[in-house]
């Protein structure tokens, strides 16, 4: 079992017991979600294009996900760089099938417009990357299931944990990188293995 899997499972179970599944009660056309899927959390988000979205909009492909805030002076840019390293080292067979998602927990300052500018400034390919802004409830719920903690400081910045998660096509956390890594080969290997398993079912 991957580190933190038990914590994630407990947190997700507690959230699901109080919030249920999708707000309209509908199930995806590709079948019901697994019980441990992050996508069972029905939080509302807004994309960098200003469009409303739920987490389940990411369903169907593996997703590399992290929580950041845009005005972070040090750690968050390194989280994004780590994710870009992962992206750059994906084999061709997997690269077209993997999505990358960034969720802001600075619910006051990080607007969809700022997310779009941030993505363009950092050269993020928006055909593969998605950025999301939400309210405090949405951010706290997602933080609970991704095992990300954060605390706002008096200067408006945040103390926060550093977690990059790999979700399978149904939104179940299958790997988690805690802290920044100069060598992202383990994360890439996990994506390759996940892609092989997905390919065997296609």
What does this structure look like?
The protein is built from six helices and nine strands, in the order H-E-E-E-H-H-E-H-E-H-E-E-E-E-H. The protein is an alpha+beta fold. It has one domain: Glutaredoxin (3-Layer(aba) Sandwich). Helix 1 (5-19) packs antiparallel against helix 5. The longest helix has 17 residues, at 185-201. The radius of gyration is 16 Å and the shape is globular. Mean pLDDT is 86; it is low at 1-29.
Question: What are the SSEs and their pairings?
Answer:
Layout (H helix, E strand, L loop, with lengths): L4 H15 L24 E4 L4 E3 L8 E6 L6 H14 L3 H4 L3 E6 L7 H10 L7 E6 L1 H11 L3 E3 L5 E3 L2 E5 L5 E6 L6 H17 L1
Parallel strand pairs: 3-4, 4-5
Antiparallel strand pairs: 1-2, 1-5, 3-8, 6-7, 8-9
Helix pairs in contact: 1-5
Key phrases:
202 residues, alpha+beta, Glutaredoxin, 7-stranded mixed sheet, two-stranded antiparallel sheet, 6 helices, globular, disordered N terminus
Provide a quick synopsis of the model:
With 202 residues, the protein is α+β, with helices and mostly antiparallel strands. It contains 6 helices and 9 strands. The protein has one domain (5-201): Glutaredoxin (3-Layer(aba) Sandwich), CATH 3.40.30.10.
